[in-house]
Design goal:
The chain folds into 3 domains: about 110 residues, Endonuclease Iii, domain 2, CATH 1.10.1670.10; about 100 residues, Endonuclease III, domain 1; about 55 residues. Helix content is about 55%, strand content about 5%. It has 16 helices and 3 strands. The protein has a 3-stranded antiparallel β-sheet. A hairpin with a 2-residue loop joins strand 2 and strand 3. Helix 3 crosses helix 13 and helix 4 runs antiparallel to helix 10. The N and C termini lie far apart (about 50 Å).
């Protein structure tokens, strides 16, 4: 049994039956939930079970810090409170709004998702995993997050921080599939929303990548790592890939151009200079073509415009 081996080795080595594993799991969950009662962060998206608002928050939180997302999230749900509201608006308006959040492709996906939900789901966010995964830009993490945080389904939600925490509990690095299995098996059946939020906060606030606060950790008893090892390399799971350097990157150049276009159309001849690529016209042209292919800008008569003119 996976749990018996990775998280509760004592249940196996001492000869206890599966009942012992169940008891260990219950004790771990009770310890985590008790800690959550006094330690859970107050975040605006935690005050709602509205599936659209939950989906929006999860898309915004992809690779963007919480403190940058909070004000944007509140403004977004006020301006576009439903998929229909976003789908009926101009994509260029969403792109202008998205400035400061980074990764504008997420805005493109969210806009297309709003249209998909409006056209194929009667304006209601689906709650089934397979249907959620068909939404543009929605992967396993986001789909499961919506299932738990909007519909309180009994599934585990695995992000980078939680993957690190589970790897430390297990005592060795985990592959993404293995980490997801552990998360699904551990999740509390009665309080999946609270359990997953608590795991998020434990991983983000205490079981941090650098200098984890192991002393006083509510679940230290079940952790194989406990801040020292046995293997100092333990502490990761194959959940995400490392981001490349931002300074001088294509992401930085693309972002500069899109930000400039929020002020209005621009002659294509000025784009390379705006992107900081005056000495690399070929690269600038490639990035413009990429942005056009993603419908993030339009080229019309040697002029660049934000978004897609068809929307």
């Amino acid at each position: 049994m996976l749990l018996q081996h990775e998280i509760f080795p004592m249940a196996k080595t001492s000869g206890r039956a599966e009942k012992g594993v169940v008891a260990e799991k219950r004790a771990l969950n009770q310890a985590l939930l008790l800690w959550v009662e006094t330690s859970l962060r107050v975040l605006p998206w935690r005050a709602t079970r509205d599936p659209w608002a939950v989906l929006v928050s999860e898309v915004m939180l992809q690779q963007t810090q919480v403190n940058r997302v909070e004000p944007k999230y509140l403004e977004f749900v006020d301006r576009w409170p439903s998929p229909q509201a976003l789908a009926s608006s101009k994509f260029s308006d969403l792109l202008k709004f998205w400035q400061g959040l980074g990764y504008p492709r997420r805005a493109r996906n969210l806009y297309d998702t709003a249209a998909h939900i409006t056209d194929f789901h009667d304006g209601k966010v689906p709650r089934v995993l397979d249907e959620l995964l068909l939404l543009p830009g929605v992967g396993p993490y986001t789909a499961r997050a919506v299932m738990v945080f909007a519909f309180e389904e009994r599934v585990g939600v695995l992000d980078t921080n939680v993957g690190r925490l589970l790897a430390r509990w297990s005592g060795y690095p985990l592959q993404a599939k293995e980490a997801q299995q552990i998360a699904d098996q551990l999740v509390d059946g009665e309080k999946p929303w609270l359990w997953n939020q608590g795991l998020f906060d434990l991983a983000a606030l205490r079981c941090t990548k650098q200098k984890p606060q192991c002393v006083g950790c509510p679940v230290e008893e079940w952790c194989s790592w406990r801040g020292v090892g046995p293997d100092p390399s333990v502490g990761s799971a194959g959940v995400t890939t490392k981001q490349g350097r931002f300074q001088g990157s294509d992401r930085q150049a693309r972002g500069r151009l899109l930000k400039a276009l929020t002020a209005g159309p621009m002659p294509i001849s000025e784009a390379a200079l705006v992107m900081g690529l005056a000495d690399d016209q070929a690269r600038a042209s490639r990035l413009i073509a990429d942005l056009q292919g993603e419908s993030l800008l339009t080229v019309q008569r040697e002029v660049l415009l934000l978004g897609d003119l068809l929307q």
